[in-house]
Amino acid sequence: MSSLNQSHSSHGILLLDKPSGISSNQALCLAKRFLGIKKAGHTGSLDPLASGMLPLCFGEATKFARFLLEADKCYRVVAKLGEQTKTGDSEGEVIQTRPVPVLTYTYIESMIADFRGEIDQIPSMYSALKYKGQPLYKLARAGQEVERPSRRINIFKLELESFEQSEEQSTLSLVVECSKGTYIRTLVEDIGKAMGCGAHVIALRREWVGSFKDNSMIALNAIEEAGLEARQYILPIETALATYPEIILPEAMAFYLRNGQAVRVGQRSEGWISLKNHLGEFMGVGEYLEDGRVAPRRLLQVATT
Q1: Structural domains of the chain in order of their starting residue, each with its CATH number
Q2: pTM over 0.85
């Protein structure tokens, strides 16, 4: 894995391999303590049941967490058929049991085909989304249910890896590549509903986030053992923006941008753009304006080279 020099290692992104059994916030707090870094945030919660990639942003990198929150993600999930639970996973109480149809690859493929591409999904009550300032999961635990508007998501890939059927249980193993805002528990529940038997998640692992597809993750116990030395695994901030276009600015333009002024870069486009100075050093993120200029939106306040 790439690393920063020790002098810069309190600003960047660490790809944590979150263990199952703890919340994302608990994992973040432990990593902060082990690394001795106070300013940090994670980039999208993983359920306590889930394991896998949880990018942690430290120092100035917290300014760019939204770009990982909005990134595409990949999961491996194991679904148990025939049981519906309160929470959509194995941590919740079973509320309904139904017989499972005879499983074949052709049958399962016909059931999951409709969930590929752009679909509308109603988030679970057991999610961190907020209703009038309260997380939905807190309302759900209090026995309340509120109406949740559906959200348009994109399932780029939904692949059946394997399935098992026995007298004890029937399971599906799926690979899901999806857009931001996708709830895997809800996807599994909806597939179970389409099959007429119900389903819930019994295992979930996030494989990658955004551009971090070929990067190694570091386990929480490895960070604890290494202590401050684990800072060497913190990646440069700009790695979070690898999928965005970038521009290298002349010295004068970089000066104006640092002082909050929009600059004309000689090329028209739209959306976000990664900014580097004439030395190739990452400065931050800008956004194209309607007139073609680039305005600064998120800039580093410390040197990273």
Answers
A1: 6-71+210-237 (3.30.2350.10), 73-206 (3.30.2350.10), 244-299 (2.30.130.10)
A2: yes
